[in-house]
Amino acid sequence: MTEIKSLTLSELKTALSGQPGFRAGQVYTWLHRGVRSFEEMTDLPKALRQSLADGFLLTAPQVLRRQESKLDGTVKYLWQLHDGNCVETVLMKYHHGNTVCISSEVGCPMGCAFCASTIGGLVRRLSPGEMLDEVLFTQLDSGQPISNIVLMGIGEPLDNYDNVCRFLELVNSGEGMNVGMRHISLSTCGIVPRILELAESRLQLTLSVSLHAPDDETRSRIMPVNRRWPVDELLEACRVYYAKTNRRISFEYAMIRELNDSPETARLLLKKLKGLPAHVNLIPLNNVAESPLKPSDRASVLRFQRILEEQGVACTVRRTLGSDIDASCGQLRRKYQNTR
Ligand code: SAH
Fold first, then answer.
1. Mutate to test the pocket of ligand 1, among 92, 114, 222 (most ligand atoms within 8 A of CB)
2. If DSSP codes are grouped into helix, strand and coil, which group holds residue 57?
């Protein structure tokens, strides 16, 4: 059955072509307000509500777990989807507005050694409407208006390229949530052909690349994707991306003890990023129970940051939010699966 919330307004107009012209707009508005059933669309004729219910699937996830950090107010949701699968969404409260971190897939096929989301592999990709649901229902449940979205939860957004692009169109639409592209970040482990495709679309979102190491030997050890698209190829795609979009690229760098945190590694990173407008985000590795990798100590993180900054590369150390609630990706879903 067609998922109605995955349709754009013009597709909905086509689907409702037998109806008066304004109906599609009415339905679209209801959908993007987060109704849970067609019955709630009270200004539609009863017969139309019934035929929509007969013809379309209306997704609306259920909250399975809701955890709120006592430290910083971060809220983590574990949602149950219509087919019983689960994904996580995190709501973070920043000075510049509320940000949701959404999942793009159930599980992940990429196999990064430090990441809880990929244990168990990919189960399935999320539809555009299901990604929209994460934003909508987080806003509804929390009562907090959402101004920013990051695609940094479970899954690899560029492995679900078409659905992610359609989600961006939906969430950006003026008749919907109207979230500006500049308020959206998309994080990828580095699927080069898709980065190049995204560059062509010239969307003004922020591309975030999970680099984690500047040399192929280390990166291939922790990120299998690097064996297919090595560091230099990835950074070349980033240069093309910058040339096409004029958007500075953000690099994620998880600091792992004695693996990628030495001054020599920082200097190699500088060399590789030369001439590319970049922002490096150092993330102290989150411990994952299943992984032997350990976080760098604070002094190594700060030393690494200083080396980059001294050469004029913008570099921040990410604040760890929600550390008391397993807020980093994939951890809550893992725990839930393990206790069932
Ligand atoms: N698949 C995408 C987006 C999801 S992960 C990607 O790879 O970018 C979001 C970020 O969290 C990525 O940078 C990822 O590498 C990082 N990450 C995953 N597990 C982590 C951990 N245990 N500690 C720190 N960062 C982690």
1. 114
2. strand
Model confidence at 337, pLDDT cuts 50, 70, 90, reads low
Over residues 75-96, the mean pLDDT reads: 95
30 & 83 share domain:
no
The residue segments making up the domain with residue 50 are: 2-57
Model confidence, pTM? 0.95
Mean pLDDT in residue range 40-49 = 97
| Distance of alpha carbon 85 from alpha carbon 31, whole angstroms | 22
* CA–CA distance, 220 with 334 (Å, rounded to integer): 25
Grouping H, G, I as helix, E, B as strand and the rest as coil, residue 156 is: coil
187 Cβ below 6 A of ligand 1: yes
Q: Looking at residue 195, which CATH number applies to its domain? A: 3.20.20.70
CATH number, residue 33: 1.10.150.530
The Cα–Cα gap between 239 and 230 comes to 15
Q: Looking at the structure, do residues 258 and 277 belong to the same domain, yes or no?
A: yes
Ligand 1 atom at minimal distance to the Cα of residue 210:
13
- Ligand 1 lined by 4 (C-beta under 6 Å): no
Res 182: pLDDT = 97
User: Separation of 71 CA from ligand 1 center, angstroms?
Assistant: 22
Q: Residue 244, Cβ neighbours under 10 Å: how many?
A: 14
Instruction: Kindly state if the Cβ of 189 falls inside 6 Å of ligand 1.
Output: yes
pLDDT over threshold 70, residue 129? yes
* Same domain assignment for residues 33 and 91: no
Number of structural domains (the chain) is 2
Are residues 143 and 243 part of one domain?
yes
Picking from 189, 129, 185, the residue whose alpha carbon sits closest to that of residue 156 is 189
Tell me, yes or no, whether 69 and 114 share the same domain: yes
Same domain, 30 and 75: no
Q: Are residues 85 and 119 in the same domain?
A: yes
pLDDT tens for each residue of 306-327: 999 999 999 999 877 666 766 5
Same domain, 53 and 66: no
The angle at the Cα of 157, spanning 36 to 243, to the nearest 5 degrees, equals 130
